[in-house]
# Entry
Amino acid sequence: MQQDFTLGIEEEYLLVDRDSLQLAEAPDALMQACQNDFEGQVSPEFLQCQIEVGTRPHTTVAGAREDLRRLRSCVSKRAAEHNLSPIAVSCHPFANWKDQHHTRKERYDALQHALGGVARRMLICGMHVHIGVEDQALRADLMPQLCYFLPHLLALSTSSPYWSGEDTGLSSYRLTVFDNLPRTGLPPIFGSWAEYERTTGILIDLGVIEDTTKIWWDLRPSHRFPTLETRIMDVQPRLDHTLSLAALNQALVRMLCRLKERNLRWRQYDRFLIGENRWRAQRYGVGEGLIDFGDRSIKPMTELMDELMGMLAEDAEALGTLTDLARLRRIAETGTSATRQRRVHAEALARGDDPGRAVVQHLIEEFHADL
# Structure
């Protein structure tokens, strides 16, 4: 197989005050120190309480692990100098979006203007995984096949049950906020790379968007890199879980390329059906299973993961990620960050403690657990 299946990971963090556990804006000195430590790998995000990191391209998950570990450690160390701490969670448990301010940069000022009030609610963080696919035609061919697995990735990653101090009943409230933006959700089905370029080119030619970085589908060809970029996942409080999800992305792309070499492909299902699984993942996480369209049944996530691990065994072994994928089977069985946050919340209530503060403290501990 000619592909290297390189991977890169981007994560967005929230910054909280270590005493109040409320969101805090990133001081210029903090951003400058991080950028000096890791030139080109740390940047501000849309809101001033956010910070983004990105690994360099790696051929192995092990290489990405060390890179991301150092980035997380750097942000933690520099934040502590200002009595702040990062948390890797898609929604802060009790912060109010109305109290936040966007970063004053030309790019973010333009985004605020273009999106109006919708942009103000963007108090959310995600993680993106890039998998290297050099050939443009292959990228177009893989996209509709990989879409089938997007709900699985979302279900395993859910980390945003709370919004403005309330339990939303969802496992990923982040997606509810993000879907208010234009050009989001499941990507359209394109028959070729030329069709993708023609379709997106209409908006570019009309000046509606300057380039495809303003297309925010759950899965897209990256504008900057020769990669497929998966964007549906909530960010992970624990480093190990981030790497396991990255490993799953990498193994899925390798599996689909392996099928192509044998003149096979994954069956393409209508976006309406995949959208139903997307909703189930958003609502329940791993708790209520997903629809197996081939079998026409709703299967528990543990059963789906067992089947998926069997299909990906050859690829995981070749990529050296069997252990990383096995960790996802455990998540399917015991629950995601959303599950753990709700447990901490309930335990704090039973003790008579402030449940919101308890959840944030829990998220701080999880961020640092694997460093």
Observations:
- The chain has a mean pLDDT of 94.
- The longest strand covers residues 7-17.
- Residues 7-369 form a domain with the Creatine Kinase; Chain A, domain 2 fold (CATH 3.30.590.20).
